[in-house]
Design a protein that fits this description.
511 residues; alpha+beta; Nucleotidyltransferase, domain 5; 7-stranded mixed sheet; 6-stranded mixed sheet; globular; Gluconate kinase
């Protein structure tokens, strides 16, 4: 009998599917990532092809197994993580009749504002999902009001994760966290919220069945199993959304444990033993299990800011990287490292893609403030990186009001590869930052949920003993004082510029 020593975490992200093969102790054996395109058929529309995502997910798993060289029969299970807020219309033949509309889609800004001004507070207090174009609630309102044909013909409304589960296991089920992120799931009763459904004109029969994250799916067809390079009876555990799984995979589980993640977007999150919302509507609160919720706030603007900086300011570095086989991001980071903390008084509001927490304003716009003739490209690069962390710090202030002061800070996501960005994080927050060896925390959290569902580990909290840690970053007190002084200015800029953001956004929409 083959001993089973490995577990796979499958992470369906915003721009790629990643599969990571772990040992039981959290050490990474192999990983594979497959990207998929994002389509923009109209301004502010952000769509993907569900079938392209499915193919990328299958290729991610098969590629990981090929890289590892292990016997597929040594794998215990696959746990699934997924980005939130996607929406697909399905017909009676179980085929997608719309693209997958992602969290970044802004077409429903008008509808979101109307909901916010009318019944938004009441719905938010029940669902824990801030009213914003990111949520399927607002997307469905747009579909209803514009007579969007796929909406009118839809038999089901599902997320990309539900699409994959249906394709692979012929079931319409959804984990609590993905359901929570819809904007029409009650985090107190763990049932679909009738008032929200009535608002957008759908019924609970058009939605999947909400299930615990430990739900096991089994029975791949022989054709699918061959594509995955997996046994056809291998258990897939439905898992959760990428946010709570990132907390889980980094060990941020107890009160006072705060996880900060930056990938394409970013977030700061904390687990809690009861749902907490208030009328200010500044943070999300999603159900994970019936005993565990996650609170926090997402920013639209994480790694995508650095990508924009590279594309706009990094022409030379892109060419140098191409010529030498290096990395343009590393070259730009080296430039930024030579600038003093605070970028000599230059601030950057990183709202290139609108903003979610704590403002929930799709009209917010990016801005450099304080430019002088002495500022050069390296200052602009560093100010951009600092601006992303200022944004997360502002969300952290709101989270602290509801969940208490953070005790332990953990960092994960692609930005955790950058020692400069991590040091900026430590200096702005004024706290030590703990970083795991693997930055694939959502995948490890998904894998651990799989182990837990199959009784291979004693508890969710036991993951703390199976997270190989890399290093810690300690704050520099001088740098922290500099950042604290600049943050006082940063904090006031959004409210000062908000009226102008709205005007500019209106002009841009009409261009």
């Amino acid at each position: 009998m083959t001993t089973k020593n490995y577990v796979i975490g499958l992470d369906i992200g915003t721009t790629s599917a990643k599969a990571v093969l772990f040992e039981r102790n959290g050490l990474v054996v192999a990983e594979n990532e497959n990207a998929y395109p994002v389509y923009h058929p109209n301004p502010s529309w952000v769509e993907q092809d569900p079938y392209e995502i499915e193919q990328a997910a299958i290729a991610a798993i098969s590629g990981t197994i090929e890289k590892s060289g292990i016997n597929k029969n040594e794998i215990i299970c696959v746990g699934i993580s997924s980005a939130m807020h996607s929406l697909i219309c399905m017909n009676n033949q179980h085929e997608p009749i719309s693209p997958s509309i992602t969290w970044a889609d802004g077409r429903s800004a008008t509808q979101a504002n109307h909901i916010k001004e009318t019944v938004g507070e009441r719905i938010y207090l029940k669902t824990g999902t801030p009213i914003h174009p990111m949520s399927p609630l607002s997307k469905l309102m747009w579909m209803k009001e514009t007579n969007y044909q796929p909406y009118l013909k839809a038999a089901k409304f599902i997320s990309i994760k539900e699409f994959l589960i249906y394709r692979w296991f012929d079931q319409y089920i959804v984990d609590y966290a993905i359901a929570s992120a819809s904007g029409f799931f009650n985090i107190h009763t763990f049932e679909w919220e009738e008032e929200a459904l009535a608002l957008v004109g759908i019924t609970k029969e058009q939605l999947s069945e909400p299930v615990p994250p430990t739900t096991i799916c089994q029975g791949l067809t022989s054709t699918l199993a061959e594509k995955f390079q997996l046994p056809d009876d291998l258990p897939f555990v439905i898992g959760s959304s990428d946010g709570p799984l990132a907390n889980m995979g980094i060990g941020a589980i107890e009160p006072g444990d705060v996880a900060i993640t930056i990938g394409t977007s970013g977030a700061i999150r904390q687990m809690t033993s009861k749902p907490q919302t208030d009328s200010l509507q500044e943070v999300f609160c999603y159900g994970v299990t019936k005993e565990l919720w996650i609170m926090g706030g997402p920013t639209n603007n994480g790694g995508i800011v650095f990508q924009w900086l590279k594309n706009v300011l990094g022409e030379v570095e892109i060419q140098q990287a191409f010529d030498s086989g290096g990395n343009a991001y590393d070259l730009l980071t080296t430039l930024a490292q030579n600038v003093n903390p605070g970028s000599e008084g230059l601030l950057f509001l990183p709202f290139l893609n609108g903003e979610r927490a704590p403002y929930w304003d799709a009209d917010a716009r990016g801005s450099y403030i304080g430019l002088t003739l002495t500022h050069q490209k390296p200052h602009m690069i560093r100010a951009g990186l600092e601006g992303v962390i200022y944004s997360l710090f502002s969300i952290g202030e709101t989270l602290e009001r509801l969940a208490g002061k953070p005790v332990n800070l953990f960092a994960s996501g692609g930005f955790a590869r950058s020692s400069l960005w991590l040091q900026i994080l430590s200096d702005i927050f004024g706290q030590e930052i703990q970083v795991p060896v693997s930055h694939q925390s959502s995948a490890w959290g998904a894998a651990w949920f799989g182990l837990y569902a199959l009784n291979e580990v004693p508890s969710l909290a036991a993951i703390k003993d199976s997270i190989p840690m890399n290093q810690t970053y300690k704050p520099n007190s001088v740098n922290h004082n500099t950042y604290s002084e600049l943050y006082k200015v940063y904090r006031e800029l959004y409210s000062s510029l908000k009226p102008h953001f709205s005007t500019l956004a209106s002009i841009q929409r009409n261009v």
